[in-house]
Amino acid sequence: MPARKHHRAGNRIFRAVGRRLEHFSLSSKLVACTVVLLILGASVISLSIRQFVSNYLLEKTDTQLSQQAELVYRNVDLLKERDTKQATAGPTDYFLQIRDTDDMIVTNALVPVLRYGVTSQPKLPPSGQDGGITPNEPFTTSARVTATPMADKATLQAASAQWRVLARPLADRNNRPSGTVYIGLSLSDQIDTVNTLTRYCIIVSLLIVIIGGFAALVLIQGTLSPLKRIEKTAAKIANGDLSQRVPPAPENTEVGSLAASLNSMLARIESSFKEQEATTEKMKQFVSDASHELRTPLATIHGYTELYAMQRELPGALERADESIEHIKSSSSRMTLLVEDLLSLARLDEGRGIDMSQQVPLTRLLRDAADDLHALDPERQVEEGSLQLRHGADGTLGLAFLPGQVPQISLSGDGSRIRQVMTNIIGNIHRYTPPDSPVEIGMSLLAASIGPDSLSRLPATNASLTTFLEALEVGQSMQVGMNYAVIRFIDHGPGVPEGKQTQIFERFYTADSSRARRKGGTGLGMSIAQSVAKAHHGFIVATSTDGGGLTLTVVLPVEPIVARPGQGPSLPAGGKVKAARSVRAQGQGN
């Protein structure tokens, strides 16, 4: 139980320390860790150096005792005559004690005398005892000091240093044991050397810790400065400024990789917000336009209903009732058509109401559309044919219409929806162009070096058509990419100004609202057609017809191009654009 209580107490202390550390910044933690590591490293190195030098000097002293014991014993008189007026015992200040075979002290042959008459000698076993000392094995013992009143602190400190002593057996001429000689050297010089070295190590360690801590502070702050910028950018983004971006850095670094990922994420978030805002704005406009469009037939129905109620008692009420009922029927039919178109758009926006598993014969649908236009406008000349990629006189790419047979093309998709696209386009031609103006309808299967996903994301602009034509040029020359069914409806009516050509795909947009209302248009036909094309991973673009009029280009993917044996691999996206420009430049040069 006590151990468990201690364990819980330790966990509480650890959690408390952890909570305290959470309040410190990352740079402070890193600098503190660096300083702690420097202190530990410097301490370990200093202690290692101290221990190494101490052991080395001790081994050197032991070697000196072992090698010079006999020499010192034989030159006692000479060593007694040396000058002893010094503050410390040097390496030749030997202590020498001779004992007989019974360990009785015979004489202290050498006793070092320091300055001011201070003597120092090792503490040895009392006379007559060996103290368990092993012969020929050096050992360390404390000092016995005899001081004088005049002795200074340095001399006393040197005298009190430990001794290193070696007990060496003596033998007579017949090699019989005759006693033991104790020879010792004071460790004062070794201790002084180690202490001096330790002080230097401490000073150097402090300098290393101070300089290293300052360098770590500068380096860590410099390294984390991109994170500080990221933090400031994130704060601005949190305040609603989604246009902010993290300053870039080399992507081979962690900060650079993080910055690139954050910028990519921010770009997507900003794009999503803009799309959401655009969608919300379109939805508001859509609701407003739908309310306006529905209000007109509802007001008509309500008005003629009240008119009938007011005039039913008057003479000729039956004839007026038939007229009111006819107007009510017309308005309800228009409202029914509008509601059906709205429901169709809602299903397409939600990704419903479309079946991509059907095999659709485009050629038959195109001919049916041409027949429908003939039926609507018997006087109109409708010509069918194919399309071909060509260079214009100014070097620009374009699609040329070639009268003749329409090629047989089929694709996987929703047949009724694709028929609806062609019907809506034919309906617009019928509504907005003179009934005697000619129309060309062409279709071909062309290869393009662009994927359906990329194609469906292109906006309905002239620049997008240029991008697709460049991809056609690469696909035709290198046979890479995807086969697309390219359909064109070319009219020679009043056309649409270039600035408003993209607006015809907006909901409830009508070039001539009065005429559209008279012909039964709702302003949703081209929006539905574009939604159907996008659902099939294609798109529709409106451009001006040479000589006046409007050309609608419908692009729908059919199947990937199968590489023939020996054919090279497809080019990457950048290579495709360069290849297209190169081919076009060569064509202009020829």
TrEMBL record:
Cited Gene3D superfamilies:
1.10.287.130, 6.10.340.10, Histidine kinase-like ATPase, C-terminal domain
Does the record carry Repeat as a key word? Answer: no
Location (main, coarse) = membrane
Q: Which GO terms describe its cellular component?
A: plasma membrane
**Transmembrane feature ranges:** 197-220
Can you tell which superkingdom this protein's organism belongs to?
Answer: Bacteria
Region (Disordered) residue spans? 565-590
What are the residue boundaries of the Histidine kinase domain, all occurrences included? Answer: 289-560
Instruction: List localization entries.
Output: Cell membrane
What's the protein here called?
A: histidine kinase
Q: Which organism is it from?
A: Bifidobacterium aemilianum
Lineage in the entry?
A: Bacteria, Bacillati, Actinomycetota, Actinomycetes, Bifidobacteriales
